Amino acid sequence: MTDHRVLLLGPPGAGKGTQGDRLAHRYDLDVITTGDALRNNKQMDISELELAYDTPGEYMDAGELVPDAVVDEIVVTALADADGFVLDGYPRNLDQAEYLSDQTELDHVVLLDVPESVLVERLTGRRVCDDCGATYHVDFDPPAEAGVCGECGGEIVQREDDTEETVRDRLEVYADETEPVVDHYRETGVLTAVSGEGSPDEVFDRLVELIDG
Fold it and tell me: Where are the domains of the chain?
């Protein structure tokens, strides 16, 4: 099977994580996210960059953003080590997008396109287990027993960043920071927009049709 190099773009709630996992399973790809890449390299020695800290973990422990130069190197190294991948969560800004274009060839750059009203509905209805982190949705994927996690029996709660006010703030931040990334790929002619509306199965079928086509 051909090794695919897929970049998934889209706002919070578009379904990148869900679809990335499904694509990885179908095509035997690595899922590479910024968060995982950083956590796997917390102790990486970056002292030669002469930054505020000597490891990515020190930034993370201090609650500070890891500088782009560090994130760039970690993510691109992870991509080089993978035979095929689904990339989610990077690039987050235009500088990162331009760096990635210089360093890595992508087979598919996919924008999961979802109207804001649908994103708000998805995100405000999301619930998580306070113990194991399993995710549910009050409308689309409720637990069998209200308020109780079907995986571990823990309490199901709404995250603070899933309230409507916070969700709309997050979408605004996405528009300010990440839409220039979308424009970059659109202008270079490699972007394909795929509707992210409908069930996860419907969205997945669209992605498979694109990749297999």
Answer: 5-29+82-212
Predicted confidence (pLDDT) at residue 2 exceeds the cutoff of 90: no
- Residue 89 pLDDT > 70, yes or no? yes
Residues 24 and 182 sit within 8 Å (Cβ to Cβ): no
Catalytic residues: 16, 92, 126, 159, 170
- CA-to-CA distance for 8 and 15, rounded, in angstroms? 10
Percent of the chain predicted with pLDDT > 90: 89
Q: Are 45 and 57 in contact (CB under 8 A)?
A: no
User: And the tokens for 139?
Assistant: 């409308």
Torsion 90-81-100-57 (CA) sign: positive
pLDDT, tens digit (0-9, with 9 covering 90-100), for 105-116: 999 999 999 999
| Domain 5-29+82-212 annotated CATH 3.40.50.300 | yes
| DSSP code of residue 21 | H
pLDDT in the model for residue 19:
96
- Rounded Cα gap, residues 41 and 56, in angstroms: 7
Closest to 59 (Cα-Cα) out of 81, 79, 77, 44: 44
pTM of structure: 0.86
CA 129 to mean position of chain CA atoms: 20
